[in-house]
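[Backbone geometry]
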Amino acid sequence: MPVVSGTTGLHETLAVLTSQLHPDARHREDLSFLKDVLSEKSLAYLMKIHEKLKQYEKLSPSPVLDSASCLAEDLADDLQNGPLDEDERELLLLLSAPHLKAVLSAHDTVAQKNFDPVLPTLPDDLIEDFEEESVKIVRLVKNKEPLGATIRRDEATGAVIVARIMRGGAADRSGLVHVGDELREVNGKVITHRRPMKLSQSQGSITLKIVPAVAEEDRLRESRVYLRALFEYTPYDDKATPCQEAGLPFKRGDILQVVSQEDATWWQAKKVGDSNLRAALIPSAQFQERSVLLSLIILCIVCLQAFFPLSLSTASLRRSFRLKKDRQALPGDGHAPEADQTDFLIYEEVTQYLPRPDEKPRLIVLIGSLGARISELKQKVIAENPRRYGLAVPHTTRARRSQEREGVEYHFISKNGEYKDNLYGTSLESIHRVLAHNKVCLVDVQPEALKTLRTAEFQPYVIFVRPRIFDSQRKLFGSSSSLAAGITEDDLMDMQQSAEHMDECYGHWVDYVLLKEDSVSALIELQVVMERVQKEPQWVPVCWLRS
């Protein structure tokens, strides 16, 4: 058996011990488990860190003196008082240099300062005897960050209770504060009449007097639920949030990792890509839906009372909205595009997806506002690389124009679906035909068709093409050709309004917004985006991969 001496490192001792574990027939399962535990890399790393810390304690560097600046000045004075040889003159010149003086001054500043953390002693009167209550004193040293906990007042007893612990915050990292704990004092001050919101504003060192909850365990378990936000949220504008400082602001399209759904009203989440490791509060889907519904009811009551000053039944209005929502949720229920505006757009559960080489390419769907000219854009994509890209040609019942070719711009057929006095549509068969040749299929559709295409069968990547318009609204980028075509300021205003309307009604389905300045740059940007879609991970609805 290898010899373990007193100088052998802890991690080396652990490795020797692990190598000597030979499971026998009677204790095979227990010894195998022990060997797996001792073989963990994380445990070996911890042992190495422990050794380094111990080594630092024994051999911690200490300055020889803390007054090097004074010593250098005294030496310079002595040198100036007598005759100097060549070496002494060089030394005097060095000691008089401002850079060396600055270095010695910095050395003295560091040498005279104690960098070890020093916790203040607890006040003598902080510990009190309670007849039958166990009280614990918790001291947290924070780096200019919130405590990471929200509190509430018990309506029956008036006690201030820890309502939730934010994942990754100071309270969570300490492991000493738990949901359900009763707070008696903060930094020696009784908080019976203290507003709960003030606790989140405490900075630096904080001392808590706590009556522990019956259950000391923190039941929160970090989940791996990812949601795409379909609305914008600003906690400082939300009076319903239990703590505005603990809220997580986000924009539509942000990806949120929900780490706790224990609270049915306020979930804890982190924003994917954010460097902040602490979780924060977001409204739950159910709570946000109720808030939106209540806002609609109030708005409806105000509008109706403005026109019809009659007594209205709030219950009947709520039932009307619920029935309308249920009707819209029915699969296959045809409705106008405007109906989508009343849907409850809260969150969409998503996951990361990377297409495999053996899978068919993702469908590229182009939607465009007025003036985007996406038909011209997709034709240029096909013309440059017909082997890589294919076009699902739409159908129309309008008359064929002189420059149009059957099966290129449109398939000219009899009536099927109406758009602006003419009937248009893209058949699913034409999409399948392109994908069957392992080509990236491009389609441009009216945005209301996204409800049909946005399925696991096609896994579409939706690109919204909109013309970039100057804020002055006087001309388009690359406007020489546009103005020559007779585009007026009213036309530009219509384009702006069209883009805003499409973004408001269908922006939650959009994966990428292409601001078109001119045809050349738009074509290059579109090609880059389409290649990235087929090669890089993308967030997609989780139902696409479960079906």
Notes: Residues 359-392+427-546 form a domain with the Rossmann fold fold (CATH 3.40.50.300). The two ends are 57 Å apart (CA to CA). The chain has a mean pLDDT of 76. The chain has six domains: 10-58, 68-111, 136-211, 225-288, 289-344, 359-392+427-546.
